Amino acid sequence: MREGLQAVGEGAVVRTDAGAVTCRVPLAWHGGRVYELRVWTEREGWWSAAVGDDSGGRGTIIGRIGVPDHWRRLGSVSTTRTEYRGRPLQRCDDLRACSILYREPTADGGRVQPERHESRVGPGTCEGSRVEAVAGGVRHAIGGLS
C-alpha cells in the first residue's frame, strides 16, 4: 500500500484543513482564461493532478497522491470550492468581486458524466456570495456583492 500526498513545484505545500488534506501550489491566475484540471494515474496506486489554461502547454503539476492499491479508481463525489485566501479583510466591501464558472466534471474523455449535483454556500463572514446552476456547470460568485 502506498499512501501519502506529495506537493510538486516551487512553493507547493501539503496542508490539512478541517480534516481534508489539500495540496496547494502558487499559480498566477489570469481573468478571462479557461482553466482545466486534469487528473490521471501514472502507475498503480499513484494519481497526479495538473491545472492549465487555454494558452497552451501542459500546465502546472499540482501534486501526486498515493492511495491504497485496492481503491483503483476515483470516487463518485467531486467537489468544487471557491475560497478567499488573502490577508484578513477589514470590511466585506474590501473583497473584490470574483466569478468562477465550473464545468461539470467528466472522465474518460467525456464518456462519464455526472448523474446529479447539489450546490450550497458554506458559512462565512461576508454575505453576498452565491452559487447558481448554469448550462453545463455551476457559477460561484464572491465579493463585491454586499
Compact summary:
With 146 residues, the chain is mainly β.
What does this structure look like?
Helix content is 0%, strand content 38%. A hairpin with a 2-residue loop joins strand 4 and strand 5 (46-53). The chain has a 4-stranded antiparallel β-sheet with strand order 1-6-5-4, with no helix packed on it. The chain has 146 residues and is mainly β. It starts with a strand and ends with a strand.
Annotation, overall tally of beta strands: 9
Helix amount, in percent? under 10%
Strand order in the sheet with the most strands: 1-6-5-4
SS strand fraction: 35-45%
H and E order: EEEEEEEEE
Q: Treating each run of at least 4 consecutive H or I residues as one helix, how many helices? A: 0
Mean pLDDT: 77
**What would you call the shape?**
globular
Rg: 17 Å
What oligomeric state do the depicted chains represent?
single chain
Structural class: mainly beta
Low-confidence stretches: none
The biggest beta sheet reads:
4 strands, antiparallel
End-to-end gap: 49 Å
Question: Secondary-structure map with pairings?
Answer:
Blueprint: E1 4-7, E2 13-17, E3 20-24, E4 35-43, E5 46-53, E6 60-66, E7 98-103, E8 130-134, E9 137-142
Antiparallel strand pairs: 1-6, 2-3, 4-5, 5-6, 7-9, 8-9
List keywords for this structure.
146 residues, mainly beta, 4-stranded antiparallel sheet, 3-stranded antiparallel sheet, 38% strand, globular
